[in-house]
Amino acid sequence: MEPDYIIEMLNIRKEFPGIVANDNITLQLRRGEIHALLGENGAGKSTLMSVLFGLYQPEAGIIKKNGQEVKVNDPNDATALHIGMVHQHFKLVDVFTVLDNIILGAEDTKLGFLQKSVARKKVQELSEKYKLHVDLDAKVEDITVGMQQRTEILKMLYRDNEVLIFDEPTAVLTPQEIDELMEIMRGFSKEGKSILFITHKLNEIMAVADRCTVLRKGKCVGTVDIKDTSKQELSNMMVGRPVQLEVEKGPAHPGEVILDVKGLTVHSKSSKKNAVHNVSFQARAGEIVCIAGIDGNGQTELVYGLTGLEKVSGGSITLCGQDITKYSVHKRNQAGLSHIPEDRHKHGLVLDDTLENNIVLQSFRDKRFQSRGFIKRDAVREYANKIIDQYDVRSGQGPVTVARSMSGGNQQKAIVGRELDRENPLLIAVQPTRGLDVGAIEYIHKQLVAQRDAGKAVLLVSLELEEVMSVSDRILVMYEGEIVGELDPKSTTPQELGLYMAGAKRNTEGGARA
Q: What's the whole-model pTM score?
């Protein structure tokens, strides 16, 4: 008779300097089930899964597979046990092709020669079977984040894994891609594969999981059957208090124009077409304007153009009456622009520097932090501690923690705290709640509304339909590099918004059509 559980992690303890990440945690995964792992940022979810995958060795506890104790010393041992993992931050080689990334480390050779045609055939068959279509010859650096995730999933399937770990798999996906992934996960479950699914998104847990284990501050709060629980109950277990799941805000009172964009055009790096074509809009003091759209329709390039990360090829950008079109990133920051970037690792943090240095990354030249060219270390630390406390940034060694060692959600909270506290007239927030738990999302949404109510202009770029509808005062929809619609969230529906995002409707001048 088969054991009840395919994987058992019993009394796992994992410590890091200054913190117990996993404190006597037990997790049991049934064969063929989708088991969600829920918890606040820094609760120990990714650490626990990294122990199972062999990236970390626990100080105490054992792992069993099919009832037998096993040792997972490294990811090769995990692969040999048919355990696979899609990491929150993908483990792909940017300059390799999709196919090369999928077979890397599991190459099929004959007489020392790589049998790429055999590998290609197997990957194509998996791609067709699971509807994970991706260009196998494209370089990873040239494909979307959603396609990169498909590549990671194909990597797992290519190795014939039967236990699949997904670490925050939907944090970087569009709503459509999330729906597709949910279907793929259900298909895996029906085939008898067992899934461990780390997420902060309660809707996804309710939609796809069979059971859910909740962690809080490194300890296991409990395991519940999804059919017997609710979103509110799960959020209470996760945060330890009632959480307001709806955004509360009064009506906007737009004032003077803060950001005025006219005819902005940005070239595409991956095609001959413009990524952003002749885009014009305004953002006023006291309002939250949201740029919505399916990923890959020019939102990223628009933000790069506005913030100075990419040169624009046409048009103008005016901030508080000042033409900043040709300003550097630093000069734009000085002119009054704050930016929560889409890619926190690439544009938000110096990963191998300390948390306190990252918090003053744009403001260390201020008189409060330097004197005659020397950094005032005490002032920097005092300020960093203030941001850490205010935004509940959890880090093992406080302000001297190396940014790379922190969880993705806590890295995000540090960036959000730094940018909101600079009190600039314009805040550009790109996916500000990506990878955050419900308690942190509640707090960030309140802060965005507070920025608006304090007379700031907030330009929010989000792929989360729920966030777009609940936080914004005005919605601008981008499709194929153009703004195709301006909508009022109070009088539109998610379905109508979806039609604009898919390019099926327009209501802008020079191309209005339904």
A: 0.71
